[in-house]
Amino acid sequence: MINAPPTDDHVNVEAQVRDYGFSPAQQDEIRRRWRDGQSFSLIGQTLGAPMQHARRFLYQSGGVCLVPQARSERHLSGREREEISRGTRRENRPGS
């Protein structure tokens, strides 16, 4: 039997990030300390873990998590846009 590649152009790849025994709170702490410029050696000492574990965790997880973007209050929400759209259509109907 020959292992042929999938016929479509899409390949699903699942990657799991190893946590190296760090809790979610410790993972956030690693990211925060790294973002603040601390060395991996100091991060490892603070968390009581080998510095290589902190370094590998950050490398595998892609580094610092980005803060979710928030829409500026100056921009309309989807609901507000829909309300305006409906109002505009109502005004443009013949016989209004």
Give structural notes.
This protein has 96 residues and is mainly α. It has a domain at 22-64. Helices cover 47% and strands 0% of the residues. The chain is built from four helices and no strands. The protein has helices at residues 24-35, 40-47, 51-61, 78-91. Helix 2 packs across helix 3 (51-61). The longest helix has 14 residues, at 78-91. It is rod-shaped and about 75 Å long. It starts with 23 loop residues before the first helix and ends in a 5-residue tail after the last helix. The model has no long low-confidence stretch (mean pLDDT 78).
Task: Throw out a few tags for this protein.
single chain; 96 residues; mainly alpha; 4 helices; rod-shaped
Q: Which helices and strands, and how do they pair?
A:
Blueprint: H1 24-35, H2 40-47, H3 51-61, H4 78-91
What is the overall silhouette? rod-shaped
Please give the radius of gyration in angstroms: 25 Å
Measured between the Cα atoms of the first and last residue, the distance is 71 Å
How do the SSEs run, as a string of H and E?
HHHH
The count of strands amounts to: 0
Count of discrete alpha- or pi-helical segments spanning 4 or more residues: 4
- Share of residues in helices: 40-55%
- Decide which structural class fits the backbone: mainly alpha
